[in-house]
TrEMBL record, chain A:
One of its GO terms (biological process) is phosphorelay signal transduction system. CDD domains: REC_OmpR (cd17574). Keywords: DNA-binding, Phosphoprotein, Transcription, Transcription regulation, Two-component regulatory system. The modification 4-aspartylphosphate is found at D56. Residues 7-123 form the Response regulatory domain. This is Response regulator. Gene3D superfamilies: 3.40.50.2300. GO terms for molecular function: DNA binding. It comes from Salipiger pallidus. InterPro entries: Bact_response_regulator, CheY-like_superfamily, Sig_transdc_resp-reg_receiver.
Automatic annotation (TrEMBL), chain B:
CDD domains: HTH_XRE. Residues 11-65 form the HTH cro/C1-type domain. PROSITE patterns: HTH_CROC1 (PS50943). This is XRE family transcriptional regulator. InterPro entries: Cro/C1-type_HTH, Lambda_DNA-bd_dom_sf. SUPFAM superfamilies: lambda repressor-like DNA-binding domains. It comes from the Bacteria. GO terms for molecular function: DNA binding.
């Protein structure tokens, strides 16, 4: 990977989802880092400082909503584009994510094409 | 209970509906007002010409006065009519309807209460995902697995070369995930199936137990003959859901303990003297008033004390046992009248409260209620006791003077100026009720 490629941090606890998403994003020319533990997610984020964060809602240790709220309070990550993944698509969940400051929201199971589209849109917006 | 004991009640009910003064009706029937008063309080039996005259003045069939439907039925019909006001049901002719078509009336009232039960089940089921963590977990697990499979499969399906090493990995992932999906979908299906079976039965487990007790007229002869409660519950509850059977077992264990402390023969003999007085009965058997109340409510029909009703609630006010009287229904769900002495007893544990009660807006006879709250189990060191309240009800002998007007539930209670009103009544003016 060249040093100029955009970097994505994927926080997700399902190994096979990690593998598939990493694969398609790498093929897109992005540098992908992964992390699986909710409790240490924000430490990992501060250290990695990616251009985009993909965050699962249901994580061991800490929920995606809490991680999102905390990172929004930190000036270093306050404007970071965040794409949230959830298995629940109820309006209430969407609202909760929006209140916590999400940039985009995707419901599982999503297609690879949808994922790529969202990631491209968010990257373009951040650039 | 003889059917014609409520003739007076029905005459009064009909008279009030017509807005007729007692004196006026008495004058037109050519009897004295005080005699009519006795009739209306079911203290004088009437028949023959006087009955025919009264029926004519009141504009009803004589038979609807002597065979009028029970109070509970009227209440059920009234609630059905009020929840669907657009139907234009003739509430002022409710009595007539119930009297002339008792079978249809019962069908209507039963359907209404069945609808209410189902509506509550639907409410509970609607927000299933929010309230059932097991279901939410199972679905989350399935969706995660499906996501992984879908992602990996579409990588493999897309045109273009994929490194053989990656190809092997994604194939293996799909294989593993599909096995996981098979397992989780199977367990989800069996979870939902087991639930469907239980729900196919009539309503909640509490209702199943109630239905059984009601069908047995609240007297379980096998237990009085000394059968082990576990055995009896197993045998009588074969068709029940497991939860209902567990509740039945507990109810039977308590019944058996009561029966052992107060054997049927001696109790049947004692109530000839003590009647419906649970304190006198408790004293004779050296036991507590709550047990005496339960025993009174479990005697076979024909016991000398006459029919009694009993309600038991836990410290949160939820009914755990209900045996209604024909004239004094006890609601099924936790939307009861806070004025019932049963609830007052919870705030004055170990004091026996006695009250005359009169069902608001209803002309049926008053009842006497005796309520008592005591700890539901033996004392434990450094633990607050958990209280349980019992309330025994029986037709009043005092004539119902000074009886407190209580409701079944606020929604259908017409009492105005009620200190305990929780929501406006469907009957009458909301402003007058303090809303």
């Amino acid at each position: 990977m060249s040093s100029t490629s955009k970097r994505v941090l994927l926080i997700e606890d399902e190994p096979n989802i990690i593998e598939a998403i990493s694969f398609i994003l790498s093929r897109e020319g992005l540098a992908v880092e992964t992390h699986s533990d909710g409790a240490t997610a924000n430490d990992k984020l501060r250290q990695a400082l990616p251009d985009l964060l993909i965050l699962d809602v249901m994580l061991p240790g800490k929920s995606g909503y809490d991680i999102l709220r905390e990172l929004r309070e930190d000036p270093a990550t306050a404007t970071l584009p965040v794409l949230m993944l959830t298995a629940r698509g109820q309006t209430r969940d969407r609202e909760m994510a929006e209140r916590a400051g999400v940039s985009a929201f995707m419901r599982k199971p999503f297609s690879n094409a949808e994922m790529l589209e969202q990631v491209r849109a968010l990257m373009a917006g951040a650039a | 209970m003889a059917r014609d004991t409520l003739t007076g009640t029905r005459i009064r009910e009909r008279r009030v509906i017509l807005g007729l003064k007692q004196a006026e009706l008495a004058r037109r029937a050519e009897i004295s007002a005080s005699y009519l008063n006795l009739i209306e309080h079911n203290r004088r039996r009437i028949g023959g010409k006087l009955l025919l005259d009264l029926a004519e003045i009141l504009g009803v069939e004589p038979s609807s006065l002597t065979e009028g439907a029970e109070a509970a039925l009227i209440a059920g019909l009234r609630e059905a009519a009020l929840t669907a006001p657009a139907s234009g049901a003739e509430i002022d002719r409710l009595d007539e309807f119930a009297g002339r078509f008792p079978g249809w009336a019962r069908l209507l009232a039963d359907s209404r209460s069945r609808i209410e039960t189902l509506e509550r089940s639907v409410e509970a089921l609607t927000d299933r995902l929010a309230h059932d963590p097991q279901l939410a977990d199972a679905l989350h697990e399935m969706l995660s697995t499906v996501t992984a499979i879908r992602s990996a499969a579409s990588i493999l399906a897309e045109p273009g070369d994929i490194d053989p090493e990656w190809q092997r990995r994604f194939h293996r992932n799909i294989y593993e995930d599909s096995a996981r999906l098979a397992e989780s979908s199977r367990s989800l299906a069996s979870y939902l199936e087991a639930e469907g079976e239980a729900a196919a039965k009539s309503g909640t487990p509490q209702e199943e137990v109630e239905a059984l007790l009601e069908a047995a007229d609240y007297h379980i002869a096998a237990l009085d003959e000394g059968r082990a409660p576990e055995e009896a519950a197993e045998e009588l509850g074969t068709a029940m859901s497991p939860t209902a059977r567990a509740l039945l077992r507990r109810a039977f264990q308590r019944y058996a303990a009561d029966a052992a402390a107060m054997p049927l023969g001696p109790v049947m003999e004692a109530v000839k003297t003590t009647g419906t007085d649970p304190l006198a009965l408790a004293e004779r058997f050296g036991t507590d008033p709550a047990r005496a109340m339960r025993r009174l409510a479990s005697l076979p029909s024909g016991a000398a004390c006459g029919p009694v009703g009993l309600a038991i609630c836990d410290a949160s006010g939820v009914f755990t046992y209900r045996r209604p009287l024909p004239d004094f229904p006890i609601p099924r769900f936790g939307a009861d009248c806070p004025l019932w002495p049963l609830f007052a007893a919870l705030s004055r544990p170990m004091s026996v409260l006695s009250r005359g009660l009169h069902a608001a807006g209803r002309q049926s006879g008053a009842v006497d209620a005796i309520a008592f709250a005591q700890p539901s189990g033996p004392p434990q060191i450094n633990r607050e006791p958990v209280f349980e309240a019992h309330m025994l009800i029986f037709p009043t002998r005092a004539g119902g003077e000074g009886a407190e007007e209580v409701g079944i539930t606020c929604r259908i209670c017409p009492r105005s100026n009620c200190p305990a009103r929780r929501e406006p009544s469907l009957l009458g003016d909301a402003g007058e009720q303090g809303f």
